[in-house]
Fold:
Amino acid sequence: MSYFITHEVGSLAKPNWRVKAGRGVPFTPQDIEDAITWGKKLGLYHEPLLEILKKKIITTKEKAEVMLWASKYALRLIEHAGVDIVYDGEQNRSEMYQHAVDNSEGFVPRGLVRSFDNKYYQKAACVSKPKLKKPWHVDEFLNLQKLTKRKIKIPITGAYTIAAWSFDEYYAKNVLELGSVKALASREKARRQFIIDVARNLLRPNIKKLLEHGAQWIQIDEPAATTIPSEVALFVESFNESIKGLKGEFSVHICFSDYNLLFPHIQKMENCSQYDLELSNRDSKELGTKEGDRPGYEILKSFKKFGIESRIGLGVTDIHSDFIESPELIRDRILYATKILGNPLLVNPSPDCGLRTRTWEVAYTKLSNQTAGARLAEKVLDEK
Amino acid sequence: MSNIKAFIHGVYPRSTAFVQTSRDVDRKRKEFSELKEQHKKDFNVLFAEQKSAKFDYVEDGKLNWQDVFRPIVDAASGMEVGPLTRWFDNNSFYRQPIITGKVKLDTKILDRFFYELPVDLWKVTLPSPFHFARVTDDTASKSFEKTLATITELYSDLLTYLAKKEVAFVQFNEPYIPYHKVKKTEIALLGKSLSQLKKVKGTMIFAVNGYFGDTTNLVAALSGNTAIDVLGIDFVHTSLTSLPKKLPHDIIAGVIEGRNSLLEDKKTLTNFIEKAVKYFQPKTLYISNNSDLDLLPESVAKEKIALLGVIRKEFQK
Structure:
């Protein structure tokens, strides 16, 4: 019996030919070779793409075509690996935060801020009330609808993460007072207003537009959800505000976070059908389903304890490592989670997060093994 | 009558050119010598900015430090760098220090991490020994007090090295205690550690600066400790009236927000500084950033330095 619906979570690496088209850099014979190899492997008729890649200079129209080809390739890779719920690996987005603020009014870029070592990210400041410039993902969704028959889950950067990764030069400007209890309270109030406005003015209209165009399932990405422990309740409020009054399926993806901080706050999340979690990164690589064998999945006991009845998007492959999880290891992770949650239908295997830092070869193998692992787990359950 | 002085502290943001060069070096498109050259250029710019703002002490901005612990960990035998760990509640990370054996500092390695500055102005910021010990994974001991003793010993060598170089002012940054609301009884351990370091203090000024939370308990617990000359308070998170009046220490007023790009209002700052001076009546009140400025882009940090300079000049008048 088929219990486990497999997912992808978001991004995939962009092929070199897609990156070069975006930057206006000439293609190399290797780029063409890559397009041929993957085109054949995925069973795609790719001749029209090759015609473009063979050109020394491409037009704006051809550039747009290359972008669509990247979507087609990535989507087909995910389908070919046997994934049930699909997207295109965000081939037409710059980066999850950048894409969101670039397509919104009220934000201006302020410059580079260090993440760690020599790694930096562009940080913007909110300088006026956030407003939607244009819906972020409608074109992308309409294109994908034409390309697949499988169910699509659209990832969208969440309100709390957008606010948490931005400076606030608008809401905070009236609370510059220092050294007073009153100022502290006013600052908290201003912070809440900022986050809620992002939810109401950016997320909600975006999601509404997607639903109007036929989207069924929206995944709200909130990697910053637990960054400020005292604000987890605010993250929950922003999720509820983002989907208030809308009819569709909504889930949340939270990764590289302290999941313990989510409790009990997430009991107040409304209509959250699934929590996509990064778990395999915290787990042992040994096989086993006995108590204590799967330290990465212990947190699921808290979901059970706090009565969270939503499904779990179960991270079964580590996205920061080329280690290939065997189908047997994935099987055991699925079975262990099933044992904790008490219902296989609450377990949807997926990668820990987007696979964009892995090569396509590695990503494909991980996703294929995810499918194989799900089937092995079903076999075990059927034999019981 | 109090003196109003100014300075910055901690890690300063790198310039866009520095970031690009470090990326190029990582991708082997440029030689490491070019990064060193860029570092020198950025250091000179930062030094000039501090001079132009007429700061009373100057720092090197730790432009080649990958995080506030790394050079110290790299220079110590018996220590290793561990996993990436979130820097409190920020979208920024450091490598957790790990104690793996007997810790001993090799000060020769430190030379390239402490850029020489004019001795009478030379200020260095270090993580407080308490903070350092709290975030360290000590494989040799499960006792925090033992870990703190190890770090205190390490700091004894580090401060001896800085004293030899004639550093004038050492600021110990302490975000851990305010952020985690550590109790006064435990804060006393920091006081004890600093008292032990008094023997290597020489003529250096010692300051403890709290941030990322309410610093009331930190100030109350350390007040009167004779190893500490200056206490630093994060006034974005601390109410003035919750603090003891007339402290027997000079004060660092953390009034420039290190985590938001919004530029402070000059009048609000001036009014608050006047209020703080009246409240504490310190010999010297240093105006400064509350937390390190490296959570801001360089262009914003530059504006904040200039504003500090303007305010200092107004009070000097």
Summary: Residues 181-212 of chain A form the longest helix (32 residues).
